[in-house]
Write a structure and sequence with these properties.
The chain is built from 9 helices and 5 strands. About 65% of the residues lie in helices and about 20% in strands. It holds the Pfam family DUF4349.
Length: about 280
């Protein structure tokens, strides 16, 4: 009898373990969805932001400076004008000047940021010799986001003051106080909006300063005029007269010394006469 009971107990425990194992390996529909969604996100490009996506959201102001020598200043100026128009930019300033040895042209060009590298590459191709090429990138993302946030808050405060002015201001003092607050906030909003427009303009359009020059031929030497005998004689007479005048001026300058010397000479002569009489 004991053997039969032990056998039944053993079978019961065996079936219980099998059912628990099956229950542990069964997956509920909810868990299946979670696993499926997790696997679905694996390898999807849009799930984590790639570095390129992060860079595209940053606010960068790019500027450039370059100085180079060209073969023909006029031709290179036309090339820059055509290239600027092709890149949907514009020339904001131009200063061209010429000397005996050098012809220069200094330009400031505004180019869309996405055309910045292409424009610089084309300018390098135009140069015979590059004195320098400088590129600068300034990250203004933090300032841009800060201004946007402050601007949003200022507009919300302004809206509340306008509601107070329209619905809650009962006395003249309340109206004047609300209007003053609205005026001050409006000035702050305009200042922030102006700074935001400036940043947007410089972010969307890069500034490139270009100085190019062309070495020109040296100017012809001036013709040396040779004087004749009569001219030389006149100059010599004038120089002699000038010497006499300068000598007289020099004598006038040392008149105290001449006076002392004259007195000493007279005193010696008088002293000799007195000694001779004795």
């Amino acid at each position: 009898m004991k053997i039969i009971l032990i056998s039944y107990l053993f079978l019961f425990l065996l079936f219980s373990c099998d059912s628990n194992l099956e229950g542990n390996y069964q997956t509920s529909p909810k868990n299946a969805e979670e696993i499926g969604s997790t696997e679905g996100h694996r390898g999807v490009p849009g799930a984590p932001q790639a570095p390129s996506d992060l860079m595209s959201k940053r606010k960068i102001i790019r500027t450039g400076e370059m100085k180079f020598k060209v073969n023909s200043l006029e031709k290179s100026t036309k090339v820059i004008q055509a290239l600027t128009e092709k890149c949907n930019g514009f020339i904001s300033s131009m200063d061209q000047n010429n000397s005996n040895y050098l012809a220069r042209n200094v330009l400031a060009v505004r180019i869309p940021t996405d055309q910045f590298d292409y424009f610089l590459f084309q300018m390098k191709e135009e140069a015979l010799y590059a004195d320098y090429i400088r590129v600068n990138a300034k990250d203004v993302t933090e300032e841009f986001i800060d201004i946007e946030g402050r601007l949003k808050n200022k507009k919300e405060v302004q809206r509340r003051y306008i509601e107070i002015l329209q619905n809650k201001a009962k006395t003249v003092e309340d109206v004047l106080a609300a209007e003053e607050k609205i005026r001050v906030i409006q000035e702050e909003i305009e200042s922030k909006e102006g700074r935001l427009r400036y940043l947007k303009d410089n972010i969307s359009l890069s500034t490139i300063k270009i100085e190019m020059y062309q070495v020109t031929e040296q100017a012809e030497a001036a013709v040396v005029y040779k004087k004749g005998f009569f001219s030389k004689a006149v100059d010599a007479f004038a120089n002699g007269w000038n010497f006499i005048l300068e000598l007289l001026v020099g004598l006038i300058t040392i008149w105290p010394i001449l006076l002392i010397v004259s007195l000493v000479v007279l005193f010696r002569k008088k002293l000799k006469r007195m000694i001779g009489k004795e």
